[in-house]
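This section describes the prediction task in plain terms. A model, or a person checking by hand, is given the sequence of a single protein chain and must write out its three-dimensional structure as a string of tokens. No templates, partner chains or ligands are provided. The sample shown here is typical of the held-out split.
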Amino acid sequence: MAALGLSGPLGRSIHRPVKTCTECKQVKLRCDSKAKFPAPCSRCQTRNLQCVVDSSFRRTPARRRVEEMAKELETLRNQREDNGFKSTVSPDTHFDSPDSALEQSGTAVVTEFGIKEQYQLEGFVIDKNTAADMIKVFATFYYPHFPVVNPSISISVMYDTAPLLFWTLIAIVASRGPLPQHIALFEHLKAPYLAQLRLEILTAPVPLQTIQALIHLIMWPLPSPRQSHDCTWLYCGVTINAALYMGLHHSKPSQSLRSIGVPSGSPRARASTWLGCFLASTSVGMHIGVSPHINETTELATIENFVRTYPIPPEFAYQVMVHHIMARFTTIVLENSQETVSQSLVKLIDTELDSLKSRFPTPWSPRIEMAVLVAKLHLYTMTIIRMQDVTSREVLMKNGYSVALRIVYLSDQGLFHRSDDYPEIPAGFLQQTCPKNYFRALMLAAVFLLRFFALNINASAEEQETAKNHIAIAQRFFTAGAHDATDEKARAALVIEVLSRQQPMDIDSTKLKIDDRMGASIVFDAITRGHELRNIKADVEEQTSPQDNGDHQQQPIADMPPPPVVPEFNDYAEMTQADISAMSDFDIPLDFNALPQDLWGDSMWGMFGTFAPPY
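The expected answer:
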């Protein structure tokens, strides 16, 4: 017979819910981590500590901790003496691990020769020093992510020959930083820049430099009050059609004929611009659930030919080839309805993604790994939501679980580039220089963990706890990166907080409200669920005219009421902390006692490295 207190009926173990984080448990203090989830407990938040609840954690007595520290200190002292006060690491040692210093994917050099005293766009004026500083910031922190423009950037030449591209780079740096003095300029630049942008993108034919400006806006879109106001997908249509008109998708450059109306550009500029169009449009399409525009066999063959022919920075080339694989197979996966075939296709695509290491040998970087992981998570998710076989779905969910954990970890560690020229910039500001796709990927990973593991009653206790720990990391990452309560990262953090307060559910019986957006379906569904939790109607109704209602009687214009304002509900969130507090009045109970047992435990905390491919 089982011992009293150790097991219950039928021999099942009885677990007491863990309510205290490891930091509070170590010092024997009361902890409110359960009530604060996904935010850290009050004590950890005040002291800036890592708030983790681990069911397997056992506190170490203070005396024993002092003894262990003394032993470690003595060991280090003896080791130092044995080596004659020399470093234990050879200066010539090369590390291939993620902790080693990594070479940037591409570098740009800024030339100030011939720079003007000031630069003006309508009423907005900056002096030459500010212009030079902002272009240098772009070359240092932004260009390595997306090396499309000429790596030798002459400020005066760019302004004279490609003014929209010049002001686009200035606008991106002003809207994102990382230097506060540049961010302060954005409100003054925004209106004249958008006016110039609208004018030039609607003036045919669109030249090469305007295409380059637009694909940079796709990678780093300007701030918008709602996700639905983000114009990146519209820019994708303009850039691709303009690039096709210029013949950038052909290996052989076309002549600069008057009948075409625009210069053809140098072969290298054409190749890098077409690769930029492909990477930008395919990645955005993947995150909003739209099939890739560029997916024809000849077009994909040209892309691989450009990657192998021209001096493309290796990290950028690797990311292009990851999306090349996804563009090749996405339509096939979506059009296939047989689950056995879908599973085989997933394995095939998985193998193709992993084989890039041998086909395109590239030094490891967190951005290269991130590209592969995000592609895999989208692949798994788009297949999971269409599968009916429970066993096959669980296999893919396990694969997606490890991938999503790794995405959260890499995002938290930082995907930005550092520079010795700007050593004083904190990591939080440098995060803003990353392309928006990293933000979208982290949101997808957090929603995946939340739906399929954290709030899934069929997931194991260990999976639930580990998922919740990483959801909390994602939520804190978004909160820390928010400039104010209305920007996109603050809205994402609040959505995660609202969704985390749901009761556990059986995902086999809980269908997605949106299932036609590939892997992005779970993100759109989560946003819709967030609206419902706030008692907001998620559907946008069509407005009917009097003729549709059979009322043909005309009404004087002066007597007509103003048109009703139709709210847009497809945003991440537009809520305040008061909205979340008011959720106690909802029909859905939000009591944390209803959440799974051992909410926070994370026995896999030290195993991140097992998920990393051996680049």
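For orientation: The chain has 23 helices and four strands.
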